[in-house]
Amino acid sequence: MTKFKFILPACFAFFFIHSSVAQKPASVPGFFEEVSKMTKSDSTVKLKVTTIHIIGNKKTKNYIIQREIPFKEGDSLIISRLLDTLEQTRYQVYNINLFSEVEVTPVIISAHELAVNVKVVEKWYVYPTPQFQLIDRNFNDWWKTFNADFNRVVYGVKFAHYNFSGRGDQLRIFLLNGYSRNISFSYSAPYSNAKLTEGFRVSGGYTENREFAFKTTTNNKVVNFKRPGFVRNSLFASLSYQFRKGFFKRHVFTLSYTYTNLKYRILDPVFNPDYFNSSKSYAGITDLSYSFVYSNTDNVNYPLKGKVYGFTALKRGLGLTGGINMLSLSGVYSKYFPYPKKWYNVVQFYTKIILPFEQAYINRRSIGYSDFYLRGLEYYVIDGVAAAVAKYTLKKKLFAFHINVPFNIKAVPRIPFAFFAKTYADAGYSYIKKDFNTRLNNRFLYTGGFGVDILSLYDANINLEYSFNQLGENGIFLHARVGF
Length: 484
Prior knowledge:
The chain is mainly beta. It has five helices and 22 strands. It has helices at 8-18, 31-38, 62-66, 82-94, 139-144; strands spanning 46-55, 76-78, 99-110, 113-122, 126-134, 153-161, 170-178, 180-189, 198-209, 211-216, 222-226, 232-243, 249-262, 282-297, 306-316, 326-339, 343-355, 386-404, 414-431, 445-455, 461-469, 474-481.
């Protein structure tokens, strides 16, 4: 693969606008030594929590923070487990994604009593920002396949409020133009009932596209349909309900409807008659899904310790077979292992199956989308109806530092940086019927490489990777994501 050049300062500037490195719980010098003396070194002694002080929240409601604390006023904590309990408290408060810093510190009241201070620094919540988006699957595809063509971008305005009423509710409005048009909104309220166990999300919008992928070649390259003007438009609406009784398990039910109209007859044999698996150039698509997610990590945006697993069942269409009807089952499992001297292991598994195996083209998305990809095969799309991907990463934290912000900005008093060196290996397989077989389908795939992760403000992280694959290709790849 041809290597590409990129300018790091420009990348950093972009992510600073939108996007903290997770801070460890603050140490309390002498606290445990003093408690030990007062209790005559009996580690089974319990300390009663007399009060929980929440400090630093201006917008966020106290009860939203209290909901994530695994103990309440009046509870007793065993001394031998106190540090772990306070550490877990910091993780859980931090992972609601509303704060750039969280400190949890104990204060001795007596030999058997203590208070707990929870100090937070709130993030910026309101972002009326200009938008600059790529329409391609990822940055690498845009850079190499389309030669970084700036005509293939979407621009406009995004208004986002990530803590609209102080209850962690998010409002987003998009007004985008350029290579595609998008007018859309979404509102989510994760704590919509008095017990803070239920929530909902509603969204909708309208899009127009100047091109879209209508088939995949035998060399696993996407072919886009393009004509003058806009060639596809879609109207969509979605409603979700979520249930989260404890701290780590979440259940989400979603009902959505999308109406898609193609302005040209790409269903002709010369193009792709299997696009909708129908003779019509339009489709009304109803999706009903259920997702379960278990997430218990030290940092939801860049985990170094803990695990995440879950599965999703999606029923598309109102029938059983034919057209766009399908049943999709997918699962994910990720485990994060911390080791001494700042070494970390990451093991991840992704899998999915689509029934029946005879599917419309729009339902065959498999390896090459979202996190379901192999590092080193970013330029390829591997369709399929049954697929699995396994990823292993070994990383080492090199160093970390922060730069103080010269202005007195409480939400961003400093900009943190952390650098991790890593090496990795991926493997995968994607099955498809022989009628649609390609070079990379129905065969064992493997890739590997090494790189650097750069973690910064609001957990924005940039992954610089040098990868190689079994095809004898290699190159530099860039991945980035933000924590908001």
